[in-house]
Amino acid sequence: MRYFDVRRLFAPHLCILLFYVYNIAGTAIPFSFVTFTVHRFCCIVYHTNLFFKTKRWVAICIVGQWIGEFVISLPFIYRRGSYCSNELWMQIYTCTMATFLPSLINTVLNIQIFAYVRSSSQRIQPQVNVIPTNDRWVPVYLTIIISYFVHIDIIILTGTAIVGQL
Question: Which residues constitute the signal peptide according to the record (predicted)?
Fold first, then answer.
């Protein structure tokens, strides 16, 4: 910050604004991951609700992220003390809001997504335990490969294709 015009940069009101913007910038990327996780959580867990598949829901997620960042950063505007000092509590607050809180939210939501998907997959059981394979197609594919290297009469190729479909 010292490379800029120091007299204007460290003005009382501008310095508070700079710390406010600094905290918003520090929390923007972690909270965007929280927004993605919230969106994914709602789309997976509430998949029958069509609202979570609309552009309006995406817009609400994005606007909610920005409002959350602005609100979380408010302590920097209403702080007391010398106007241009980055106090220890401010650094701890930024670290907590940029790392621990988003990590906790993402972890909780991802665990809930995992639990929901796991319980859903255990409810759905296959009808047949053994999946039948169709071995009759092997001669068809084999004759096509062989015919690439060796000339095979068209009647034989057609016959293997018909037999393979039976």
Answer: none
Give the structural domain span for 92: 6-164
- Give the integer Cα–Cα distance in Å for 141 and 160: 9
The total of other beta-carbon atoms located within 10 Å of residue 34's CB is 21
Cα angle 107, 112, 118 (rounded to 5 degrees) comes to 125
Both tokens assigned to 136: 């009759």
Q: Is residue 13 part of a domain?
A: yes
Domain count, the chain: 1
User: pLDDT for 46-96, tens place per residue?
Assistant: 988 899 888 999 999 999 999 999 998 888 777 766 667 777 888 888 888
Does the residue 1 lie in any domain? no
